[in-house]
Amino acid sequence: MGQIEPNQLSRWFDAYGPGLVLYARQWLPVGSAEDVVQDVFVRLASQRASPANVKAWLFRSVRNAAIGRLRSRRRRARRERHAAAAQPGWFEHRPDDLVDVAAVQDALTSLSDEQREVIVLRLWCEMTLQEIAEIVGVPVSTLFSRYKVGLAAIRERLELSCKTNRP
Amino acid sequence: MQDEQTLTPAEQELASALGGLVPAAAGIDRDRMMFQAGRASARRRGYVWQGATAALAFALGLSVIGLPAPRQVERIVYVTKEVPGLPGEHWASADSPRRASDLSQVEGSYLELRNEVLARGLDALSAFYARAGGSRKTPESLEPSGGTPKQTPYWRAYRGARATEELGELL
């Protein structure tokens, strides 16, 4: 593995940047999440050589940094949670979406951290359960169980949302 | 995928619908990020050079400290000292006393002899040695006995060779 070239770094930023920010937002408000992702990319550039699996390295680094920052800010959690409510959404609003973006975000926030983490990585960061297992450090069977339970909870939440919004 | 195969069709449909959502674009300033990344990369390279320089300096210091003290060797050195003397004798070194004494008997210098030989030919040698006191054999004395030699080409060549030898001895 050689020195990381700027073009390569830029390509990785385009490919994984939005997913990494979404992943970091599971623990942090958007501003802090973006700071974490930027710091991780800067750290990647200062590496002596490119990691063997850059994608896994990026997500693992963002996870560790986000959880570490969350712990240091635990006392301000209430204030940040309040501020996060006014934050921009997790997803782009597009007319051809099959599900309501706000309802999905609401359903995701209702999940446990473990369920939400595996669903975000699986669906929007395009990672296999095996790759997720390497990042999270949990067996694939456990992750699959969390994934199924999380999907069921989202479905239930979305159906409830549809019933509530129905005139 | 393996995990997708074990999902129910309803779960797969939901997963597909959810996966169609696009994460919001990151609000990170790309130029700022690339600038900071480049600076971090350069800083790391600077650390590499600094570290290498420090390691080399440390190794050099160790080698200097570990060097043995220079050994003192007593040695007798003979220096030839020039002794002031008569002009024309300064080139006669102490290790050739014979030549110096021979030459001291000769009136005039080598240059004088050379000039005479150049002007008058090899006959000048005889006159030169005669003036020097006859301590050395003249070319004639080396000739076979029997009166005045004949001026044959052989005799001339022989005489020339002897004169050259004599000159070499003088020098």
Helix share, percent of chain B: 55-70%
Query: Helicity range of the residues of chain A?
Result: over 70%
The CATH topology of the largest domain in chain A corresponds to: Rna Polymerase Sigma Factor, Chain: A
SSE run of chain A: HHHHHHHH
Give the overall form of chain A.
Answer: globular
Mean pLDDT of chain A: 85
- Binned strand content of chain B: under 5%
Number of strands of chain A: 0
Order of helices and strands of chain B: HHHHHHH
Q: Which two chains touch over the largest interface? A: A-B, 47 and 32 residues
Instruction: Output the structural class of chain B.
Output: mainly alpha
Mean pLDDT across all amino acids of chain B: 72
How big is the Rg of chain B? 51 Å
Number of helices of chain A: 8
What percent of residues of chain A are in strands?
under 5%
User: Termini distance of chain B?
Assistant: 107 Å
The tally of domains of chain A stands at 2
Summarize this structure briefly:
The complex is a heterodimer of chains A (167) and B (171). Chain A is an all-alpha fold.
